[in-house]
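hiii, so i know i said id send this last week but things got crazy w the move. better late than never?? heres the sequnce for the chain we talked about at the cafe, plus the structure i predicted for it. fair warning i was half asleep when i ran it
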Amino acid sequence: MKTINSNVTPTKIRYRVLLLVFVNVVINYMDRSNLAVAASEIDREFKFTPVQLGLIFSAFSWTYLAFQVPGGILVNRFAPRALYAFSLIAWSLATVMQGFARGFVTLFGLRMATGVFEAPAFPINNRVVSNWFPDQERASAIAVYTSGQFLGLAFLMPVLSTVQLEFGWRGLFVVTGLIGIVWGLVWWVCYRDPSDHKSVNAAELAHIERGGGLLDQQQAGEKKAFRWADLKAVLSYRKLWGIYIGQFAVNSTLWFFLTWFPKYLVDYRGMDFIQSGYWAAVPYLAAFVGILCSGFLSDWLVKKGVSPAKARKRPIIIGLLVSATILGANYADTPGWIIFFMSLSFFGVGFASITWIFVSTLAPKHLINLTGGVFNFIGQLAGIVVPIVIGLLASGGNFAPALVFVAVLGLVGAGSYLFLVGNVERIKTES
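okay and structure toks below
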């Protein structure tokens, strides 16, 4: 253990680690959303029906969901450095192979493979932040890395559209997959757990631990055999079901944007493909602003003495209510107003996206990783349900019912935080 000198200023290595996690999330969501950019071209080549396209959009989530609980177990048993490097490189290889798909079956199967290897990513993110950040900084840290899914895609949407224009939809998958392979190697070289990092000093470690950061030593003791009783425990508490349902709602709007949104602009609202790439960037920027506002506002309120129940829950409830404004796009006739309602809705999703803070705040300490797996599992159901239901609702050529569906789910999520979560305090159980 490193010796603490009270006169030494703590290092800031945790912020470098946060940057690495941020980039991981950008690449993670780039490889989820590249199909949305390519969808219209793929549809023209293979002549898919809306229902078939909805199934392909959902394929990632079938396996991503199925492997969430196993992913949470793996995160308990393997170090983030090795597991994340393997996960990144494996899902990126599956992405490259999507560029060589020959029809529905191969594309569906490769999207499922991508879901398998991405499954541990967010439980790893949560473990890394729980190790490296004290409680009073954790909401901001989660907001920063989660914002990668929005900021990255805001800037990448026009870039991905341009890549597809130059190299075709097949080249789009090859390029995005190669980027992930390279970054997986960068993660392996650069990441270390707190006690193994040569640049972190004892003062920073003490700051993290005093503030409730778990450090890797504390989690190392949790590497024990999986017990069905543990799974039963994390499914037995009303307040945990409140955050599970809320995560489903947040992900419902998110998955509309990750799948059908570009096709909605091009094929249902008549926008030009390249123009739609630039328009599509605006809601992602709005979501990025929303999540940063939410995370930093939440931590600021806690520091000012506002109870965690209000400081953590209010942004999520407000954000989910605002996400329902997506319904306004049904009554808009111009690109500007369509994008306005889409941006307002996605700002709400961003504002509500600090939901992971409740995993590390509410879950029993020895079940945080498993709770994170279940939380992501139930939230990821939206990635299956929403694309398929939208495909069914839009199969007659009218997209309006699909937006009503997404808006209602946002309202349900707000209700779950209002009536199920209750007081924000850690659940205590016998370990």
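btw The first helix runs from residue 13 to 46. thought thatd interest u
miss u guys!!
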